[in-house]
Design goal:
The protein is of the alpha/beta class and 202 residues long. The chain has a single domain, classed as Rossmann fold. 34% of the residues lie in helices and 24% in strands. The chain contains six helices and seven strands. It has a seven-stranded mixed β-sheet with strand order 2-3-4-1-5-7-6. A hairpin with a 2-residue loop joins strand 3 and strand 4. Helix 5 packs antiparallel against helix 6. The chain starts with a strand and ends in an 18-residue tail after the last helix.
Length: 202
């Protein structure tokens, strides 16, 4: 893995919404690391981050969520990075708040931002980290739900799951995606920080 691309919407009005979980992860990684270099392109902001002993690029598209692929594709070209080396992090309303899932590739599952990334990179083999944002309160309008901020009683849990996501990124950098899948594709009550040496076949 050479880069983490967080999906979200630009603008302060979207900063704390469910749809911006991917950007929350980028913000936390930046807090935990040290920025070595910044690059500004038409559709993407790139930051080279020193994270412990590792180095990784952070990608933040300047487009809105549904056009995320334009920025990610431009970032890959600029850095000469293959899609398989970019971890795409995004919110998933099908996952309960507090859970994450890591996969090597696959379809978009109805997520418009990921659909854009897959279309622009012309491959489904893009590693992804899904951050669960589904709370306990029922909703009717999915678009309105993901564009709304987290409720007061959810704040601690979203901070915890974004923290676990950042830990998973560190593990992927150190030990690879297979070990991270085994460690973090579990219920949040029983994380396995050191992971397993056997690779999960999802």
């Amino acid at each position: 893995m050479r880069a983490v691309a967080g999906l979200g919407n630009p603008g302060n009005e979207y900063a704390d919404t469910r749809h911006n979980a991917g950007w929350m992860l980028l913000d936390l990684l930046r807090e935990r690391g040290r920025v070595l270099e910044r690059r500004e392109k038409e559709w993407i902001e790139l930051e080279k981050l020193k994270l412990g002993p590792d180095t990784v690029w952070l990608m933040r598209s300047k487009t809105y969520m549904n056009g995320s692929g334009e920025g990610i594709e431009q970032g890959c070209r600029s850095l000469q990075i293959e899609p398989r080396d970019v971890l795409v992090a995004y919110d998933d309303v099908d996952l309960p708040l507090g859970q994450i899932r890591i996969r090597r590739g696959g379809g978009a599952g109805g997520h418009r931002g990921l659909e854009s990334v897959i279309a622009e990179l012309a491959t489904k083999q893009v590693p992804r980290l899904r951050i669960g944002v589904r709370g306990a309160t029922p909703w009717r309008d999915t678009a309105g739900y993901v564009l709304a901020p987290f409720e007061a009683d959810e704040q601690a849990l979203i901070r915890e799951v974004v923290g676990r996501s950042a830990d998973a990124v560190r593990m992927m950098l150190r030990r690879g995606i297979g070990v991270a899948m085994n460690s973090y594709n579990t219920k949040p009550e029983t994380p396995s920080p050191e992971g397993s040496d056997e690779e999960q076949t999802e």
